[in-house]
Amino acid sequence: MTPTDSAATTPLSPAVRSAQRYATSLALIATLGPFFYGFEGMVLNGAISAVGTEFELGAFAKGLAGATGILGGLIGALFAGRLSDRIGRRTVLVLVGPCLLFEAILGAFSPWLGGFLFLLLCRIIGGIGFGAATTVAPGYVAEIAPAKIRGRLIAFRQLAIILGLFLAGVINVAVTSAAGSSTTELALGLKAWQWMFLCLLIPAIFYIVFTARIPESPRWLVSRGRDDEAAAVLRRVTGDQEPEGRVAEIRRSLGEGMEKLGILAILRSHWRGLVMVGVAIAAFQQLTGTNGIFFYSNTLFEAVGFSEDSALQQTLILTLFKIIGVTTGILLVDRVGRKRMLIAGGTLIFLSLAVVATVFTVAPVVDGVHDISGSPVLGFLAVAALCCFLLGFTSSWGPIFSIVMGEMFPNKIRGGAMSIASGADFFVNFMVVLLFPYLVAWSPAGTYWIYCAFGVLAVAFTARFLHETGGRQLEDMGEVAR
């Protein structure tokens, strides 16, 4: 019986139940940053065509508008983890708020404040904010969550991103429908795409209000010698009325002087192999095709009878499968284990990618382009594979990547190591987004076969190198990784 299974059979006291509810509320607040990330990405997706028209952009400039947010996320990710070691997890999360507000307000008025370059600046600053939030939030949740529900609480991050994408998609459709098009003036002298940007105020304000109410991580408090404050937080999030023993374990795990290692020191330490495993997991999460597979989603739906203007219906279908997948992941991750779910989900991912690649391999070429619109059978297979891909990704590599990143590193290196791994995630994401149009122009079938190959490598790498972290205290992670 695993530690998780054993814990699951033990009745919970009222104090522990109350503590778990409190820890859950803190995890939900921490995921407001990832919610903004998903919301912002879908807002830009709906506005990008209008932005291109507004600023008379070519293809490269439109790609740059899409990629600058990811570049900002990379900057935020690289600095946030180590900064959170210095000034605190909560403090970094609170500082993210003004960055989100900057993009939400000023991005909408960029035509009058500096044009396209100012819009890029807004996207970079907003990206720094959500990059920092998505890096620090998993570590913060890991450090405040009871071990037996830690996985599902960190997995809220992926659900938050999906809900952000969905809500922004609904708003995009509503705003565009009300205006007639995203380039048409809607109200107060603002065009529809500018109102889309102003809708970023919704998650930004919620984020600012609620993150101001969360406590500091007990692990960080111990690293600063504030043991009494750490004990008080542990008492609230675990229900343990005598948490001094856990405080002592945290202090022991930090070692002499309790000084946490910086990025360069981590890369020179005996933990560098563990960090490289984290970097590889981060890279594989992006290289399995999570962004690229949606490139042809409209074409796939049209092939099975959906009209070109049924964007909301398509969004609802895709969101339904995403929610089913991530809910499955949340319910199973603390029972089945992180490693087994990554392997199972990764297998479903690469099999789905193989089907999509096969469809494009056998599809007829019309005017130099693979055309599946005339074959409902091929379209049905591709849509079914897309839905299976969503189930596989959102139940495993989507949420569990964050769980593993939040758990796998010992207390002494967690902040810096998460910056390295999260930075790798944003960098590979940027490269995938940047290169995907060129790869597809070369060969859609070849592109998806490449993603399929990366999926196979991801499963093999996970099976060989990743250690199971479920059901264990964070203070034991140093021994788990040996």
From TrEMBL:
Pfam families of this UniProt entry?
A: Sugar_tr
Q: Does the keyword Transport apply?
A: yes
Q: Cross-referenced InterPro entries, in alphabetical order? A: MFS_dom, MFS_sugar_transport-like, MFS_Sugar_Transporters, MFS_trans_sf, Sugar/inositol_transpt, Sugar_transporter_CS
| PROSITE patterns listed in its UniProt record | MFS, SUGAR_TRANSPORT_1, SUGAR_TRANSPORT_2
Q: Which domain of life is it from?
A: Bacteria
Transmembrane parts of this sequence = 22-39, 59-80, 92-110, 116-142, 154-175, 195-214, 274-296, 316-334, 341-366, 378-405, 417-442, 448-467
Q: Where in the cell is it found?
A: Cell membrane
Domain Major facilitator superfamily (MFS) profile as annotated: residue spans = 26-470
State if DNA repair is listed as a keyword: no
UniProt keywords, alphabetically: Membrane, Transmembrane, Transmembrane helix, Transport
Chief subcellular location: membrane
Q: How does the record say this protein sits in the membrane?
A: Multi-pass membrane protein
Family affiliation:
Belongs to the major facilitator superfamily. Sugar transporter (TC 2.A.1.1) family.
Name of the protein: Sugar porter family MFS transporter
